[in-house]
TrEMBL record:
The keyword Oxidoreductase applies. The lineage of its organism: Bacteria, Bacillati, Actinomycetota, Actinomycetes, Mycobacteriales. PANTHER family: DEAZAFLAVIN-DEPENDENT NITROREDUCTASE (PTHR39428:SF3), F420H(2)-DEPENDENT QUINONE REDUCTASE RV1261C (PTHR39428). It catalyses: oxidized coenzyme F420-(gamma-L-Glu)(n) + a quinol + H(+) = reduced coenzyme F420-(gamma-L-Glu)(n) + a quinone. This is Deazaflavin-dependent nitroreductase family protein.
Length: 162
C-alpha cells in the first residue's frame, strides 16, 4: 500500500482524526481516551493517548492521537501509518529528541522513549496486534518493519490544551 493510498483511505470518512484530537484536547482528556474502533477491525474499547513533539525542521509543536497499550509499565505506541511505505512524521520527529510529552486521559507526563529489540520486540508486537488486530494487515502491506516505541513515564506536566 503506497502513501497516497493511505492518505486517500484516511480522507474518505472525513476528518475523524482531527475531530478526535479536538475532543481529547477540549475535554482535558475526559473524552477521547477510549474509542470504539470495531468498525475498522479494532476493539470496542481501544485506548488512545496524545503525544506532543517538535518538528525536526520546522520547530513547530505538534500533537498526535495514537492507539496505545501498557506493557510492563511503559506506554507502547506503533508507528504504523496505516501500512504506508514510509514512517509517520511523528516518529521521524521524535527520533530527534530524547523525550516526548504524553497525555493518557487526564494525566500528562514527559517520557523518555526507546524501541524494544529481539524477544521483547516480538512480545510487544504480539501484545499490540492483540489490542489492535489491523496492525497485522498494516505490516503485511509494507516492506518496512513497523517501529514500536516504548514510553517510560517521567515527571508530571500539565494536560495539553487546544
Amino acid at each position: 500500500m503506497g502513501d497516497a493510498d493511505v492518505e486517500a483511505n484516511r480522507a474518505e470518512p472525513g476528518d475523524w482524526v482531527g475531530e478526535h484530537l479536538s475532543t481529547y484536547l477540549t475535554s482535558g482528556g475526559t473524552r477521547g481516551h477510549v474509542l470504539d474502533l470495531g468498525e475498522v477491525g479494532g476493539r470496542a474499547f481501544t485506548t488512545n493517548c496524545l503525544i506532543r513533539y517538535r518538528g525536526r525542521s520546522s520547530g513547530k509543536v505538534y500533537v498526535t492521537p495514537l492507539i496505545y497499550g501498557n506493557f510492563g509499565g511503559e506506554i507502547v505506541i506503533v508507528a504504523s501509518k496505516g501500512g504506508a511505505d514510509s514512517d509517520p512524521e511523528w516518529y521521524r520527529n521524535i527520533l530527534q529528541s530524547a523525550t516526548v510529552d504524553v497525555q493518557v486521559a487526564t494525566q500528562a507526563f514527559e517520557a523518555t522513549w526507546r524501541e524494544p529489540e529481539d524477544e521483547e520486540r516480538h512480545e510487544v508486537w504480539a501484545y499490540m496486534t492483540h489490542l489492535y488486530p489491523p496492525y497485522i494487515t498494516y505490516q503485511q502491506s509494507t516492506s518496512r518493519r513497523i517501529p514500536l516505541v516504548m514510553l517510560a513515564p517521567g515527571k508530571a506536566i500539565d494536560v495539553f490544551t487546544p
